[in-house]
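Supplementary Methods S3. Input chains for the assembly prediction are listed below.
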Amino acid sequence: MKDDERTTSPSPSAVSQGNIGTVEEERRLGDHRQAGNKVRPHSSLKGASVNLFYIPALVVLVVFIIYPLISGIGLSFTNWDGYNEAKSFVGLANYKQMLTDANFKQIVVNTFIYGIGSTVIQQILGLALALLLNAKIKGRTLMRAIIYLPALVAPVIMGIMYYFVFQYQQGALNALLAAVGMSKVAWFNNAGFSVAIIVIVNSIQFVGVSMIIYLAGLQTMDQEVVEAAEVDGASGWKKFWNITLPMLAPSFTTSVVLNLIGGLKLYDMVKVLTGGGPGYSTNSISTYIGTVYFDNQAAGYASAIGVFLFFLIAIVTWLVNKGLAKLDWEA
Amino acid sequence: MKRIRYVAAALCGVLALGSLTACGSSSGSKKTVEFMTMQSIGTPQLKALETITKKFESKNPDIQIKLVPGTNTNENDIKVRLAGHNPPDIWNTHGWSRDRYANFLEPLENRSWAKRMKPLGDDVFKTKDGKFYALPADIQVSGIMYNETVLTQAGIDPKAINSWDAFKQACEKLKSKGITPIVSSPKDPGPNGDLADYILPGVYNEAQLSSLKRGTFDTKVYEAYTSLISQWSKDGYFNVDYTSATLDDVARLMASDKAGFYFRSNGNAQLIASYNPNVKLGLMPIPSNTGDPYFSTGEDMAFGVSKTSKVKDAALKYIDFMAEPENMQELVNILMNDSALTGVTSALGQFEPSYNYWVNERKTKTVPFFDRIYLPNGMYNTLAKSTDGLITGQLNPQSAADQVKTSFESLKNQKSS
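Predicted structure tokens for the full assembly:
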């Protein structure tokens, strides 16, 4: 038997014991046999034993995801205040309250603005930067690192840094305005401005992630197709629109889904930049959950909003994935 | 292989024992008492607690007090600890020992120092049967804090401000001089929460207060408050940097003689004075629509002991030590309020002259903190948020009142179910 044949087919002993090992395992077994060693089959990796390796991951999943999810759903049917022992079953009252909560509509709208706004900005800028820095230009590695760097910073730190840019007194932007003879602006006084600032700062922080995803897509692109298009006379915009963009569809899907989920559950940036204010006007659903839970001592209602956010993100992500999968197929 | 298993098992055992030891509050013969101070690092309040603690530990070498500094999420932190059945041994109850934390605290009415308690603040501190759950260091006597220098410059006599109309005229005078009439900040619920808490007692008459206490929230009555704030906002009385102003920014405005009035407790003068030790501050009563001007009073800094603490005896010993007059004096000196225990001299600092004038000479009446008597526990942040909405123009007087009503009814239902 040739060496390469032996390594690609499972050993008879392994098959007879119901243990189909990997190519690498078989190679090692083969080497041992060749050396005349007494080989001890990996009895500990047989059948159910292999499944033991799943246990740590399953425990983490159950303790940190499944249990809190079920517990949260359970709490959403109670009037728990968040710290006392006492709580009573209130049925769907918390879900009904969402419909009558004067702040809730605005908060859902804000959440979509954060999710969709950040996603759109990050796709446009991320793709543009990826195309620019995929070209052979001097210092591109350094530029890629600088653009990606904010993604490594905690959103709270990023928020505080930009708070110092936009704050009224001692704010960098107002200092610039003052330097050119203009009067200071209270940037956070206006809810619209504040929401826009949050979207922009969040996009700046994570545009590097989109850039890296698109760069990876560009670098793994089949160059034969690109060259064939060039031979056929495609160039510039035509080549980008008809060849590059469709071939980036998988990268687009990944980037959109990641950015959308991140934007829809935005918390830190809102908390640090505006604290959800003025009033409740810049809250996202995530920050509102915190406000309702701790400030209003309505943990049951906060849990109901949490359940709503869970299903909202799940449905939106499913719809987007479904839509973009079609795009992938068409590409 | 077997040997490896034994080594691994032994290692796990050692690690488990180590973590279990960390969970406990006593190591060997020394007991460790965790004290959640809710005071930020570097503040005079925490420094005073550190001084008292050092004295206690030198007299009680078998007890170690672990002082935990505060964060800006103190209230959330303690709620999470309580929900997790893991309360600290002692914590600062920040005005809520009876209404929020009574279920978790050891009653203290039988301690030796209990008979030294002054009656001021009983309404918000003790239960009907005389039980209480914390050692109060001071009793807040709060009114409107003012910068005396700027009021003098603008020709305003704070003693003549006995109505909201007179207050408005004073604000107009300040504004015409380029001075910010009123300062506040949304970065902490305190300034806006206090604004509501101080003004609301003068909005309601006795019959309306009784009705509110019975659980009926009349938005029309509440709108007297929301309309006042909304009008002040429209008139441009609040600091122009309001939405981005931190507590430090506000303190700086007061310290630099650029602002007139601040609706906060006297203890906040410490932060203002840290920016300008020569700042001249005073205290005036709050005008009322339904009677005479008044001061708002209640529990301020107070310390409770967890009833489930494993080192309860040590914690109670520390509390008793704090109650000794010389130790309590250390704290009262920096809180700038009335002392809660006899044998301790009130140290109102630069508020002393105005306090003496209003409280001792003019016998100005005091009323208990509004939210702790008439509103369900948990309303303070709603008061603060709705006031923020009014100042920024996000809410009109009616929608702000509706928001407060919703929260009021929701929390009332929570308590009654």
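The CA atoms of residues 36 and 68 of chain B lie 5 Å apart. The mean pLDDT of chain B is 90.
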